[in-house]
Amino acid sequence: MGLYDELSIFTGNANPELAKAVCRYVGVPLGRMDVFEFSNENTFVKINESVRGNDVFIIQPTSSPVNRSIMELLIIIDAMKRASAGRITAVIPYYSYGRTDKKDQPRVPITARLIADMLQVAGAERVLTIDLHAGQIQGFFNIPVDELTATYLLTDYFKQKRLSNPVVVSPDLGSVKRARSFAEPLGASIAIVEKRRVGNQDKSEVMNLIGTVKGQPAILVDDEIDTGGSITQAARAVLEFGATEVYACCAHPVLSGAAVSILQDSPLTEIVCTDTIPIPPEKMLPNITVLSVANLLGETIQRIHTGASVGMLFRQI
Ligand code: R5P
Question: Do 7-149+294-315 and 151-291 fold alike per CATH?
């Protein structure tokens, strides 16, 4: 037993199904709480059970509607703090604004840092998250951050497919390390699509392919699929360079804007992702496969609660 006797799990409105699945794994009921918006768009939270002294985990990806999900999370944390929770962990399976993590042009914000500050001011004492856009975002926090990865869940799925001589492809220069970690358990080679973003709009263009994909099935690996533009362009490029078929794979299915029609028109055989973000039925294409991170999160929550190693987890779940 850890420092705090009772483990409680709560959720906002961003991904209650994932929270329920985590509760099933951990074996605790989902905490009772109302989280709703008044007609003036102010968010209200009421915790309907005592959390005094408890080890509280709040599961809330900051996914669509992004700003509302962030406000809900902050307000829930504030309510927990004022209700004398013993320790508050923000479980953020998907951390939005992760791409705004540096001042890479004049007069722009570092919003990923701002959100980190807001979470700490609200009262979060730990953060548990999955596949940040860049690992360095951990350093925006002055509280412990456990960053899990969905890589092994995804590579296990591809292992079962027994693709012949697959090549793992990074759809941009920023995801090369991720592609390397993905390729290793599969014993696959890697290739890199050289992409560049055009302005601040959701547009990118493919410039080159580094490595070889000829005659091989390709697996494109990214942290998220947002509008689907990057992955679709990369898929077309690897087919042009001779790949036999292309799979896409990511932790976070953001699927914003026209993503669904872009992906529908893409040459992708299958899109494999996780349930860090819920996919509404109208966006659920027949070739999308969703793997659940619930057990990974549940096991980690149990270990944080009992003070056991989390690092031990990576190759076990
Ligand atoms: C960017 O650096 C990320 O890793 C993804 O490549 C990006 O978020 C994908 O965006 P989209 O699907 O809109 O092209």
Answer: yes
Write out the CATH class of domain 151-291. alpha beta
Spatial CA neighbour of 218 closest among 197, 241, 194: 241
The single residue of 103, 177, 195, 283 carrying the catalytic annotation is 195
The verdict on the CB of residue 224 being under 6 Å from ligand 1 is yes
State the pTM of this model.
0.95
100 Cα–ligand 1 center, Å: 12
Through-space distance between the first and last CA atoms of the chain, rounded to whole angstroms: 22
Report the CATH architecture of 7-149+294-315. Answer: 3-Layer(aba) Sandwich (3.40)
Q: Which residue's structure tokens are 């959390």?
A: 51
Domain ranges of the chain: 7-149+294-315, 151-291
Task: Return d(Cα 198, Cα 131) in angstroms, integer.
Answer: 25
C-alpha of residue 224 to centroid of ligand 1, in Å: 6
Rounded Cα gap, residues 19 and 59, in angstroms: 6
Q: Would you state the pLDDT for residue 1?
A: 52
Q: What is the pLDDT of residue 299?
A: 97
> Cα(62) to centroid of ligand 1, in Å?
16
- Alpha carbon distance 34, 88 (integer Å): 18
| Mean pLDDT by groups of 10 residues along the chain of 317 residues | 83 98 98 98 98 98 98 98 98 98 96 98 98 96 97 96 97 91 96 81 76 97 96 94 97 98 98 98 98 98 95 65
Instruction: Check if 20 is active-site.
Output: no
Specify whether the CB–CB gap between 223 and 133 falls below 8 A. Answer: yes
Pairing mode, strands 217-225 and 245-253? parallel
